[in-house]
Amino acid sequence: MAILNSIINMFTEQRLKSIRAFGEHGDSLQREQLKSLINKASSTSFGQEHQFSSISNYRQFAERVPVVTYEEFAPYIERMTRGEENVSWPGAVKWFAKSSGTTNAKSKFIPVTEDALDNCHYQGGRDVMAIYTSLHEDSQLFTGKSLTLGGSKQISPLNEKSVVGDLSAIMISNTPKWINLFRTPSQSIALLEKWEEKLDKITEYTVEQNVTSLVGVPSWFLILIKHILKVTGKNNLHEIWPNLELFIHGGINFTPYREQYKALAPKGINFMETYNASEGFFSIQDDPQQRGMLLMLDYGVFYEFVPLNEVGKPYPKALTIENVEVGIDYAMVISTNGGLWRYMIGDTIRFVSKNPHRIIISGRTKHYMNAFGEEVMIDNAEKALLKACQTTNAIIKEYTAAPVFMATNTQGCHQWLIEFEQLPSNIELFRNTLDQELQKVNSDYEAKRYKDITLASPILTIARDNLFFDWLASKGKLGGQNKVPRLSNNREYIDSLLSNNH
Fold it and tell me: pTM (2 decimals)?
């Protein structure tokens, strides 16, 4: 195995040198990305409309191309789905990722070009392996297979010109056949649409295989793991797969799940976080000793960052990578080799270091609580919940939170609906710790909680077992990319869940 790792490292060493150079040359790399994207798209309809051929610098680009949401960019995407060529990227686009990152009924169709697949999404996967094997020279990863749990939207025709599916289904459908030597389950099982059937088939197919790594969203993978343990009668993952060494995860914050996964892999397991969305592969955890994920700067993605107080303005001020600050929340804006231009992806990120630029996902531009001016982001919530769990020996399975609005004789507050894997030793202590910790990590929340003048103490409601799973099932949204928004400014989600909490 040492020989195989040496061969792999020989092929990846040059790539690793390029990645290490991000810290010194990040600014110039991003300028090169923008120049390349503009040049390649200059003859497209979008490029001609915005006079790409005469753009020579970022300032001109920002002046001519507006920052847009999906709804504002949708007319170009609709033209692509009808088979029109050279709309915002050269050629025709066949593949569209159906984005279901929230439970909203309206679907988004994200164009996935061949350039985006190979130079962004697949390059991200290759870099994950290169980085991991460089960190773990004694890795046995390639002696076995990677169990990948993707979404549940099969590839299906959008019309005679285009097809649509989860990004994971698109990637599986386009992956070279030799990759199947290292991946499980088979394509036919991986693309099954019925979640319960998929659980059974994956279990049957993989329990006798040598699985060395897992890849997927932590919450959905936990459901699969528990199903496998129940079927096999085993107590932990290493009783099934003794050589399991790595979990590559993304999609949601891993903090509430880390201890559960550690307990499920008693021989020890490495964790590696990635940020891979339908719109592109953006970052990889490159150093387990450092907080955050390394922003990947040469995948055909040009990044801009909009401070949250600019979001929603007609002409929001955007910053390039050389002008960002550590510790500030930004809405991420991307221009990509998938034909998206100054597209506000909807995620908020926070830089934890510069040169190299490492980020954490701090929330969503629409999914946070600010009904009373408190500006509670997902990152705040996860830190407070972690402290509450540690204090009361609790384990959270799922949660959502929303405001309780002020009435004539009552104050406003937050309501937390939490489904526990393991109940707190003291419910009141959990609630108080959550409240106190939120005040520590968020000065706006602390100010609103001062003497209960604006915000009263939070309400904690315990969800019945499987409430969130059953609710998603009732919406036809079971599968790896579906999730209930953690935080909301209205009560749409929490009231619907509460109506089923019996």
Answer: 0.80
What are phi and psi for residue 266, nearest 5 degrees?
-65, -20
- Model pLDDT for residues 448-479, shown as the tens digit of each residue: 887 887 789 999 999 999 999 899 888 877 76
Residue 284: what are its φ and ψ, rounded to 5°? Answer: -140, 140
The Cα–Cα gap between 58 and 56 comes to 7
Beta bridge partners of 361: 349
Are 387 and 437 in contact by the 8 Å Cβ rule? The answer is yes
Per-residue burial over 284-297, b if 16 or more Cβ lie within 10 Å, else e, is bbbeeeeebbbbbb
What gap in Å lies between CA 468 and CA 470, rounded to an integer?
5
Residue among 477, 493, 487, 473 at smallest CA distance from 166: 477
Whole-Å CA distances, 324 to 8, 58, 139, 303, 354:
36, 15, 36, 11, 9
- According to the model, what pLDDT value does residue 176 have? 78
Distance CA 9, CA 288 (A): 19
CA Rg, the chain, in Å? 23
How far apart (Å, rounded) are the C-alpha atoms in residues 267 and 27?
42
What are φ and ψ of residue 43, in 5° steps? -95, 0
Hey, what amino acid is at 249?
Answer: H
Structure tokens at 357: 């630029």
Residue 326 CB neighbours (<10 A): 11
270-277 and 246-249 strand pairing: parallel
Q: Under a CB-based contact definition with an 8 Å cutoff, are residues 382 and 390 in contact?
A: no
Q: What is the DSSP string of 397-465?
A: EEEEEEEE---SS--BEEEEEEEEEE--S-HHHHHHHHHHHHHHH-HHHHHHHGGGSSB-PPEEEEPPT
